[in-house]
Structure formats: C-alpha cells, structure tokens
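Annex B, item 7. Sequence and structure tokens for protein A, then protein B.
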Amino acid sequence: MQSPSDHAEQLDPASGPIELQDDLEGDTLREECGVFGIFGHPEAAAIAALGLHALQHRGQEACGIVTFDGSRFHSERRLGLVGDTFSRREVIERLPGTVAVGHVRYSTTGATILRNVQPLFAELNAGGFAVGHNGNLTNGLSLRRELVKNGAMMQSTTDTEVILHLVAQSKRSHFIDRFIEALRAIEGAYSLVALTNKKLVGARDPLGIRPLVLGDLDGRPILTSETCALDMIGAKYVRDIEPGEIIVFDENGAHSHKPFPPKPPRPCIFEYIYFSRPDSIVGGRSVYEVRKAFGAQLARESHPDIDVVVPVPDSGVPAAVGYSQYSGVPFELGIIRNHYVGRTFIQPTQSVRELGVRMKHSANRAAIEGKRIILIDDSLVRGTTSKKIVRMMRDAGAREVHFRLASPPILYPDYYGIDLPDRGGLLAATHTLEEMREIIGADSLAFLSIDGMYRAMGYPAGRDPANPKFADHCFTGTYPTNLTDHSESEPQPRQLSLLAEAS
C-alpha cells in the first residue's frame, strides 16, 4: 500500500501556529480530543468532516481525516479549526474512499505542531494503519523510552504513536490479535478509532474512562466520541461501546471482542460537568439534564439572599437554569459572551491584556445593576477568570456578587486527558475557602459537595468510597489506574490497579 498523500504534511499559513493566547485560557478546563469513524459510505470524508464539526468543542488546536479508497490511503491533517480546512470542496475531493477516521485535538501530550496532529498513520508489514486517540496513557512515557531503546524511530511527541509501534512490533499473525496485545501493554484512558485497508476499529479503555458510541447512518456504522456528532449527520444512536470492548467492522459485518475481564466502569465525571456538549447523551444520561440537576443540588446546599441567578457562559448555563428553577430566583443573562473572538489576538501591553476578559464576556448592566446576584459556573481552576468576572459585575453596578460552582473543589491533577495544572496551580488545593473568596472578590463562595454531585447523578446515598461510580480523582485523589509515569518525587495519590490481564 502507498503512503497517504504528501499534501497532508503542508501547513496552510491561514491555519498556522497559535502565536499568543488570551491570558485567560489557562484558567479553564481544556477539552481532551474527539474521534470519529465511518465504514462503507461513498461520501465518508464529507460525513467525517461534519462529525468533527459537532465535536469541535473537544479540541480546537488541530484536526485531521484519513480515508482509504480500496488501494490507497489519503490524509489531510492541519492546525486550526475543522471549518478552516474541511469546509473546502477541494480538500474533501482529495480524500476519496468509503471508510474514514477523523480527529479533533487539544494537546495533552505533545506540542502543537503538525507532526502531532492525528489520525497518525504508519505503514506496517500488513499494510497501512491509521489511529486517532482521545485520552492519555499513564505509562506512555515509559513505553516510549523502552520502544526507542529497542530501535523504534518516533516521528511525533504524542503518546498515541506508542500504540502504532506496539502494534507494529507484535508477532501475532492476525491484526486484531496484534491490536489486543498492544492494548494490554498500555495503561490509562483511551477511546480509539483505527483504520486498516480492510477494517474500521474502535476501542474503549477497560474502565470506560473516555466515551465512545456506536451509531448507524443508513446501515453504515459510525464510531464517535459523542451522540451530538450522530445528530449532526442524521445518524441513529445504537449503543455505547462497552468498557474494554474492541469492535471491528469489515466486509463481513461487525465483530466484538472483549479481551479484558469485566470490572465496574469508572467513566470520567467531567464529561458531565464540562466536556460533553449539553445536547449529548453520555452513559444513558442527558448532559443538559445532569447539569441542571447539579445546579438544583447546589441550590439545596447553599442559597444566599439574592435577586437574580446569572450563569457564566456558556458552560455554566444549564446549572444556572437548574439553580433558578429549584430556588425560584429569576434567571438572567447578566453576562453576554462574544463568540467571535479569535484565539490568536496579540495583546501588546499589560493594560490591553487586562481588558482580555471583556473581549469574551461583557456585562449586561440592565440585568444586574443594583441587584444581589449569584454567579454560577461549572468549575474553578486557577481563579483568574472568576476574579475578573466578579470585578466586571461590580463595575456594572451589582450590589452583591456571590459565586457558586456546580462541581466540587478541584484538588488533584488529572492524568487521563484533561489539561489541569499540578496541585500548586490549583486554587482549591492551595487555599482555604475563605482565601479563595477573598482572591476572587466575591461576597460568598461555595462549591457543590461530592455527595451532592453523586445525588444529582441519581445516587441518593452519595458517593460510596468502596465503589465510586465515576472517575472523580480530581476531587478525591482516588485514581482508577496505575500512574506509572507519575513522578516518584511527588507525593503519590491513592491509586487503584488497572484490570488484570486476561489469562
């Protein structure tokens, strides 16, 4: 098989490197990545591009699509947004074939450079192999060092390439056995879509930390990170890929493999708090309804005397709706978000940088002036954005500004695909509640409790420490897998071992 078309490696200057980001970017949770795959459709690339548009919230740094036309692989991988590349007809026409895999990326490992953009592709002895990955391997660095020591030549700095090399080095006869052998060597969180010259493959990590769903478009199978991508292309939701499941589509139909012993799933709670689109269904739950339930529970736990409920857009909106509905306090859009702010705006001086929050958020003075308001947001990381928004509300005439977070305090870093700072950079890990309140300048501050979060998810007794239903390590420090690459010089969080390998 021939390699993908070399035009994929040319960087379009219009979607070049991000030069300087808003100083507020570091105060938000960063989405991980999104994956999409389709098998047996004559317009596979166009469908994949539409699916990636729906997943754009999961990664805005880069995007890519790989297709196979029966004799050759084709690839387009670019820095920038999906619409910057795949809205052009000539690009789609360079991606012929009836099977495609696509990826949108936010870099949690590896720099924002073209050679790290996925899907990654390699020529193996049995033919071409492309893979897109959502998640993060907690033993990726260790495996990488061992692979390089044994002669592997790495072309990227992302942990996804480790999977390519593990498959390539396997001595098993059949591809699926080589793929399974590779997955047994890795730890951490992953949802994968992969493409060979005969198969579309999907895989989900044994604890189901990262999501992956199966859809159907007129009899053609779809694999994707969220159901909102199925809605975008008019496909039907079929089911979630099960934790630890590998599903293969070829000319003979679908084949499911479950090489890992079953364990209680631990999906990432942040899919409900922040990452997934509100119109997606994750694990059988409406993300929108869950976020409303978080807000209602927050109102039960902490409700000062206020006049209006104001969401911090956009992720705080559903929780604010729930808070308002439960408390009976009117909901107002006291902050208007500008959706047309570019991420490459160059701020030449400190005085201009100080105005950065106003590029994205503007106070709606008519809704808040003279009133006691409560701001509802999804989470608190460093606190810099919250501080500036509180100040903006006061400048617009708010009489009191209370702040509530629809998730518990983030106390621990993540190693599964969320870009969170070390503990020293997490405001809640280094300050008391009163200190945090003073830093952001609010009249009061409170977080959703951990038990309240679980009650909002449908568990009346709250969190069971012996059997937590979700990967909630950022709040509790209880990590669901081994953290092989975690620095031995740092205090080790509590860990639970990954699934034992099947005999």
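Protein B:
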Amino acid sequence: MFKGSIAALITPFNGGKIDEKKLRQLIDWHVKHGTNGVVPTGTTGESPTLTHEEHMRVVEITVEQAAGRIPVIAGAGSNCTREAAQLTKHAAEVGADGALLIAPYYNKPGQRGIFAHFAEISKKVDIPIVLYNHAGRTGVTIEPETVVALAKVGNFVAVKDASGGINYTAEVLQRTSGAVSILSGNDTWTPALMALGAVGCISVVANIASKKHAQMISFLASGDLKKGIKLYYELLPLMKAMDMDTNPIPVKEAMGMMGMADPAPRLPLVRMDAKKRAELRAVLKTSGLVK
C-alpha cells in the first residue's frame, strides 16, 4: 500500500513558530522530485516538542498541500494511548492516508501492553496504520509475534523497521507471509532490507536528495540492482552525514546550507557545532548540493 521513497519531513520553524509557507514549499518540492509519500510529525519532524495544536496543524497543512498527489502518513505515536488515539483520529479526520505509530517509549510496556496499545488505537480509525519499531529510541521492540497478532485484529499494513539489521525484517515478512509490508527506517540499511522484500524506505536523506533517492528505490524495487546500488553508493556519504548528530539536527543544518529551510531545531536540540558544520558542508559540496 505504502511503498517507494517516503520522506520523513522536517518541521520548518521561523522565529520559533511553524513556518507554514516553507512547509508547503517543501511538500511541493517532494512532489516535483518524485518522492512517493511524506511523513509529517515524526521524529524527523520534531514531534516531541510540538504542542498538540502545532502537531495537528502540521498534519492539516501537509494533507492540504499534498492534495492527493502523494500519500501522507501522519506521525501520531505517543507513549500515552489516549493521546496517540486522539492524534490518529485527527489524522484520519483531516484526510491523511495513513498513520505512523511508534512503540510506547519510556514507560516500556511488555508485549501484551504493546498489543493492547495499538489494538485500542486501531478501534478508533479505519485508515491504514504503519507500526514503527525503533528500540534505540523507545527502549522496547514490537516483537514479530506481536505484529502477527496485530495484523489479525486491525488495519496494520506495514512496519517501519529501524532495528539496525536484517533479522527483524526477515522474521516479520516470513511470519506474516507478506500481509504486513516492511519499510526501511534506516537509510543505510535500505538495499539489504529491500533484498529481503521491503518495499521502500521512510527516509531522512530524501529531504535533501529526493530525486536521486526516489530513483534508487525505484531501481532496487524493479530488480535493477546494478543501477540501484550505484546510486546507493553515491548517496551513502550523505546518509552517513545525517548521523553526525541527533536526528534531525544534521538534515536541518544541511537544508539551511542548501537554502531550503531555517537550520535551527527546537530546544532541547541545538545546532551542530562549527567543526561538524564544516564537515557536513564538505560532504554536501562533494555531493554537488552546495557550491
């Protein structure tokens, strides 16, 4: 259902407030450059520091501006089930094509609690739900058996896998017989996961190299590994540069250098130091993104 190069959108700010004009421009930019979908209000969109009102407004703007040209998968996760249900319901009401739900973080529920959390949310909406497995961020894993159980009771269509390996993807695809698809949640692992059957990537680097990233995913999906891997190696320095600091600090810094958006994240995140900025600019220059 959701596949290809899907950009994990930043939330652009101006003077500490959401820059609605810039957000609309970024969405148009993705449509123009072949991005296959966008995810607002995820980690890359700094959802932890958005108020509920800001969060909902970003989703509304994204849906309005996308205008059906590309799918919108709204980030709606929370460690509070009621809050996640509210955000997911809002996303459905304003016309989002799907919702991305991270595993509950910090309170670290067991698998029975994780199942109950997601199952409760799915009762509130009929839009497709993408589960987001990232133990490095949450402290818990949505185990493959839990994914299997959820697929039987709700509208869970995919998992964004940011586990940092191939085993999780392989086990989910094998256990669900393809009923639940996989989207890579880590740019550098995308070719390996797609070789196992993943159908695309929710990408950070697509914010700055959308056209090339979309081409890479298209080649990998069609089985043209030679062309896909060639583009992967061209993008790899950028992918690695996006890990120079906590996401989304590097990608916002890069977008600032490219004149695409204000580079400042919202506290408690802060801009990269001068040394890292110089290193990042060198990578962007080598990649032809800045002069």
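Comment on protein B: Residues 225-241 form the longest helix (17 residues).
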